[in-house]
Amino acid sequence: MERLISHLQVTNQQIQTKAMALLMALLQTAGRLTERELPPCGSLGSLQNNIIHSSGSVGDEMAHYLYVLQSVALNDLEPRMRTPLDSYNQDQREVLHSLRQSAFECESDGSLSHGFVSRSVALRQGVQEAGLLRESSLRSFVLENSSREDKHECPFARSSIQLTLILCEILRIGEPPSETGSDYHPVFFSQDWDCLLNELFCVCIQLLNKTWKEMRATQEDFDKVMQVVREQITRTLSTKPTSLELFKNKVNALNYSEILKLRQTERLHQEETLAPPVLELKERLKPELLELIRQQRLNRLCHGTLFRKISSRRRQDKLWYCRLSPNHKVLHYGDVEEDTDTPPIETLQEKIPVSDIKALLTGKDCPHMKENKGKQNKEVLDLAFSITYDVEEYNLNFIASSRTDFCLWTDGLSVLLGREMSSESMRSELEILLSMEIKLRLLDLENVPIPERAPPIPKPPSNFNFCYDFSQTEQ
């Protein structure tokens, strides 16, 4: 075996490939290997240094052999995966006792409550099922959960069992290697197989605890959390990390919010809404849809809105109504009673010609907010807007009853002033309308791939003699 492995240390890729082919044939012919018969990654360090980290790229044939070696080595763990729990096994009991002492070492000095210490009963089964976990990882997991509310506590036993199953499924332990497979993980060639798997479990169980916290999960969310953790592990392994430390950094950077962003992006790509032709179509549709939103805003202003007056004493006992004339030339407003629904425009005595409006102010720039500077809370500031008119000598001040009314009126007034609408409500509505319109336009193209670029226009023919000459009359 040592002589065969020495051929992997040469720089000739052809010799390396042939040596790997022979090595894989020997390993697969031997059937199930014992730990002594399987070459540990320590003796196969040349794979990491001379093949995976070499200046040249790993060829398809070599990638297949690395995949086979990985599968053979991991499948050697199948008996341990299939071994049922034996609660009477003395070795297992001693390991459990050692781990429990490590995790709950502080219970002797009374720093953990009796209620939390009693949870070690569930911990015992989890460790038995999941295998050996480093003491520091276990202690960190247990102590962090002790400070959470009961409903947000991450169940260690159940999580350990499920995580072990997920790792076995991702790594395909127990499945024979495919004849055409080439999906190997460089991280598995960085150290001893068994040690690496234990280390990988330690990293992932802490990742699970972190993701559980980010999702503010409860017991009912267990399956959702495990789906996210599976996705975090799978996506990180797909980036081909070359060491466990690199895997740990990448998988922890791939937090829950990043997973949501990736899912959204992939969904858009799947719907082909990010293809260049579709994006171009979106740009062409925007003016039409923006005009639709403008008309809706003006119609809303014509219908009018009820506003409350806020005095210096913050009393909200006076109401007034404002609406736009049907010809979009005059703002009518006036005081109304509490039970008024939609007053007729004739009853609103005050008028402001739209042509006299000079500016639209919002938030702390509004005159009625400056007068009470330091006294208005953020909620009121977010709903305040004003218009200045007649050479900026007069102001009409508004306090919207909701963020929706604020967006409708500021957008509508911007349209009257010939400005672009800028509210978050407009952006959201535009995106919804664009999405709906694009889906309707592409409905007939379902399951038809959209090319990145338009197909080239063929060159014109050398002559047009095939065309019918209408200038000659038939005889």
Automatic annotation (TrEMBL):
PROSITE patterns: ELMO (PS51335), PH_DOMAIN (PS50003)
Domain of life, source organism: Eukaryota
Domain ELMO: 69-237
InterPro entries xrefs: ELMO_ARM (IPR024574), ELMO_dom (IPR006816), ELMO_domain-containing (IPR050868), PH-like_dom_sf (IPR011993), PH_domain (IPR001849)
Species of origin: Anguilla anguilla (European freshwater eel)
GO BP: actin filament organization; cell motility
Gene3D superfamilies: 6.10.250.810, Pleckstrin-homology domain (PH domain)/Phosphotyrosine-binding domain (PTB) (2.30.29.30)
Taxonomic classification: Eukaryota, Metazoa, Chordata, Craniata, Vertebrata
Domain PH, chain residue ranges per copy: 299-418
Biological role stated in the UniProt entry: Involved in cytoskeletal rearrangements required for phagocytosis of apoptotic cells and cell motility. Acts in association with DOCK1 and CRK. Was initially proposed to be required in complex with DOCK1 to activate Rac Rho small GTPases. May enhance the guanine nucleotide exchange factor (GEF) activity of DOCK1.
Name of one Pfam family that matches: ELMO_ARM
Protein name, as recorded: ELMO domain-containing protein
SUPFAM superfamilies membership: PH domain-like
